[in-house]
Amino acid sequence: MKASVLSIYRFSRAQVEELDKNRQWSRALDGSDYLPGMVGLNNIQKTEFVNVTIQSLMRVTPLRNFFLIPENYQHCKSPLVHRFGELTRKIWHARNFKGQVSPHEFLQAVMKASKKRFRIGQQSDPVEFMSWLLNTLHMDLRPSKDASSIIHQCFQGELEVVKEYQGNENKESSRMPFLMLGLDLPPPPLFKDVMEKNIIPQVALFDLLKKFDGETVTEVVRPKLARMRYRITRSPPYLMFHMVRFKKNNFFKEKNPTLVNFPVKDMELRDYIPSLPTAPEGEKVCSKYNLIANIVHDGKPEDGYFRVFVQRKSQELWYEMQDLHVAETLSQMVELSEAYMQIYEQQEK
Predict the structure, then answer these.
(1) What are the USP domain coordinates in residue numbering (predicted)?
(2) 8: part of which helix (H) or strand (E)?
(3) How far lies 69's CA from each of 9, 178, 243, in Å?
(4) What is this structure's pTM?
(5) What percent of the chain has pLDDT over 70?
(6) Residues 109 and 133 sit within 8 Å (Cβ to Cβ)
(7) Inter-residue contact 126 to 306 (CB < 8 Å)
(8) What is the helix (H) or strand (E) element at residue 267, kind and residue range?
(9) Which of helix, strand or coil describes residue 121?
(10) N or C: which end of the chain has fewer CB within 10 A?
(11) Residue 2 above 90 pLDDT?
C-alpha cells in the first residue's frame, strides 16, 4: 500500500525544472486550496524546530530538486534520506490529499538516527537540528568517505583561521570547511530608559560579518585563551548564518534581544568582506546574495516559539509559516523580526 501511495508523488525532471515558475494554486482531494511548496506542517508535540528547518531547506533549489527525484539517491540505504525525500515530494506535489502535510514518518527516522537526541515531545534548537541534519544527510549520501554530496555542493564554504596564543609569537594558520557561520551579537545594555523599559539595541549585519574579514580579532577561552582571525576564502552557493542569541549557564537560559538590520536583496558580500578572493580568470562568480529563508524566535528563551519567513520564487513574494499557519506577508515584516538563522542564495553568475 505504501509503495502505491508514494508512487503518486512522482516528479519528472521536466516538472522539477518548472516548479519555480508555477503560480497556480492546487486543490487537494479534501477540497482545500494550497500552493505547492507553501503547505503547512503539522506540529506533532513541540516539533516546530523541525518544521521551520524543513520549510527553510525547501527553498534551496538544488537540494529540493535532488530529493524530488528518488533515482538520485536510490543507492543509499539510509531511512533518514528516503523519508526526507518523501517529505520533500509531498510538500511540492500539486495533487495532495490535503492542503497540509504531516512530517510524522520523517520525525520517526530523525529520532532513530539521532538516538533520540531530537524527538517528539521535546523542544529543541533549530540551529542544532539543522547542523545535525545536514551533516547526517551528507554522511549518508556520500558514496565514499572523501566524496562530496548535494549538501556540501550547496552549503560548504571555506575559512582561513589564524590563531595566536598569549605569550607565543608564532601564529597557527589553517583552512577549515563550514556549512554555517555563527555571528556574535553585541551584549545588550544593562540599563533601562526613562520609561523603565529595556532599550532594544540594533546592529547591522555588516558589523557582524566583520568577524570574517581576516583582520577583526575574536578572543576565545577554550580550549585555551587565544586570539583568532577568520577569513572567508570560499563562499558557497548558499550562505547560512546563525545569530548567537542564547546563552546557558548552570541556572537559566538568557536571550539576547538585539535586532539585526540585514538586506533582503542584493547583499554584496564583497562590501562586507573586502578580502574575499576573486574568481579565477575566465570564471564569473557573483558575490551578491538574496535572502530566501529567515527563522525567527519570539518570546522568552525557555517558552518562546519559532516561525519562519520564506520566499516564493515564482512571484518573489514572502510568506510567514508557523506549523499549519501559512500567510503572505510583506518583505518589510521580514526585516523587523528577531532573526535567528538565515539562508542567503547566491545570485546567478
Answers:
(1) 39-347
(2) helix 2-8
(3) 10, 27, 33
(4) 0.91
(5) 92
(6) no
(7) yes
(8) strand 267-268
(9) coil
(10) N
(11) no
